[in-house]
Amino acid sequence: MPKNFLTRGHSRSLTRTHKIAIAGVGTLGAAALAFSAAPGGGQTATAEAAAPAKVAYSSEPIKDAKAGVTDQLTSAGQTIAAIEAKQKAAAEAAAEKKAAAAKKAAARAAAEKKAAQERQAQAQETASRSATRLSVKQVSAKSYPDNLDGWIREALDIMEAKGIPGSYHGLHKNIMRESSGNPNAINNWDINAINGVPSKGLLQVIPPTFQAYHVPGTSWNIYDPVANITAAANYAADRYGTIDNVNSAY
């Protein structure tokens, strides 16, 4: 009976002491709790003390783990945000570069188009000026009457262009003496005729002389008035200095 009493009393004493120890230490470690239960010396008290100690200890590590996970999530979020910002900046830079290249290409195309238009306009202007000059030249082309006066004047213009000397008076006086102004005149009785090469035309030129002194740009017909005059004047310039110096048969 006393033994059982002591056992129960001891048990109650250990339990009460254990509770007091737990309430006293609060957040102390498992070693402090074990030390407070040691006077009883029983395993039951040690086992009972161990379980509450673990419960008391479990709160702090969980808080630290939660804080660590939160920090990691925050850090990961910041890293993702930084990557996204970097990607966005790279995309914007690429877009700006592409836009600048497109703008440059458009400006180059516009400049080439403008240059082509200017070349075309210049070509058209040149063609227009050429056409105008041709038109003026055609309009201003000299016309001569189809008579002795007109033949002499046309011949004089050709002679001037070719550098052949002679005057209206020199040509007119020799024409009147040689053919009386008849472009189809022919001499069939002089020595040239006897030799088979009669003199022909306004200035009575024999065929070999006409061919030798023919003026380029005129007809090869010996009876053509302008061709006959210019060939005879060319021959006279070579032999006498000018047709003006001829006052007789030549």
TrEMBL record:
Domain Transglycosylase SLT span(s) in chain numbering: 175-247
Gene3D superfamilies the record matches: 1.10.530.10
Pfam hit, one: SLT
Compositionally biased region (Low complexity): 118-127
Region named Disordered: 111-139
Ranges annotated as biased composition (Polar residues): 128-139
Designated name of the protein: Lytic transglycosylase
